[in-house]
Amino acid sequence: MSSNKLGFIDNCVPPNPFPPLWANSWGQDKYGLWASLLIEGVVQVMRWIRPGIFLMGSPFGEPGRSSDEVLHKVTLTEGYWLADTPCTQKLWEKVMGNNPSQFKGEEQLPVDSVSWNDCQEFLRITNDKLNGLKLWHPTESQWEYACRAGTLTPYSFGHKITTEQVNYYGSVHIDSTVAVKALPCNQWGLYQMHGNLWEWCQDWYGEYSEGASVYPERSDSGEFRILRGGGWIDVSRNVRSASRLRSQPVVRSNSIGFRFFLGHKG
Questions:
Q1: Quick check: 78 pLDDT over 50?
Q2: What mean pLDDT do residues 247-266 have?
C-alpha cells in the first residue's frame, strides 16, 4: 500500500519478538495477534495494533459532529499493544488495594471514578512490578485508530448503533456500567471502545491540524486532558469514533475509566 492511501503500512511485520517476552500466553485469531499480560495474578489480553494510515476526525455532515473534529490524515508509523478491555475493578483492586468505583457488583465491571492523576499512580505501581515494561495511556490518535478498526463510519459498527452493541443512553438504557466483555468487540478484537465509560488519553486537549500529520500528540502542557469513547450516560453523538471530551486531570466521574497500552509513548 502506498503512503497516500488508507490502511496498514507497507511491509508491516509482526512485533519483534513475537511472542513478546512479557507474554503469559499468546496466539492469533480472526482479529489478529494477541498476547496476555499477567499482573498480580490477573490476566489482561493485549491486542497488537499494526501501524497504519487513517482519517482522524469527522466529515462535514456527520450527525452529531463537533467543530473540533477537523478531518485529517494521520500516519502511525509504529505498532503498539492495546488492552482489549478497559481496566477492570478486579485488576485495579489487585494493584491499588482499593476500589473507587460507584458501580460495584462483579469483578469484570470496569473501574470507574478514577481521575487521570489516579491512573498515573496505577501505571507507576504496575510498571514497577513489571520489570522495565512501560504501560501508558494511548494517545488520542492511537485511540481513534484502534476504535475505528479500519472504518470510516461514525461508529466501528456502522452508521448507527443499538444498545445490543453499545452501552449508552439509547432507547433502552440501564443507568450503569456493564461488564467489560458484555457487548461485542470491534473488528480488531477491542471491547467497548464505544460507550460504557469515557477513557483517559495521554494528550492534553488541543485543536487538530488541518494538514496530514505523522504520529501526532498534543502539546506537553495544558489545562485539560483528552477523554474518548463516551459513557453509559451519553447519547449516541457522544460515543462516535471521533467524539472528544476534555477534563481536568483531577476530575473523577462514574462515567470515566481507562485502558492502557504498551508501546511507543509518542
A1: yes
A2: 90
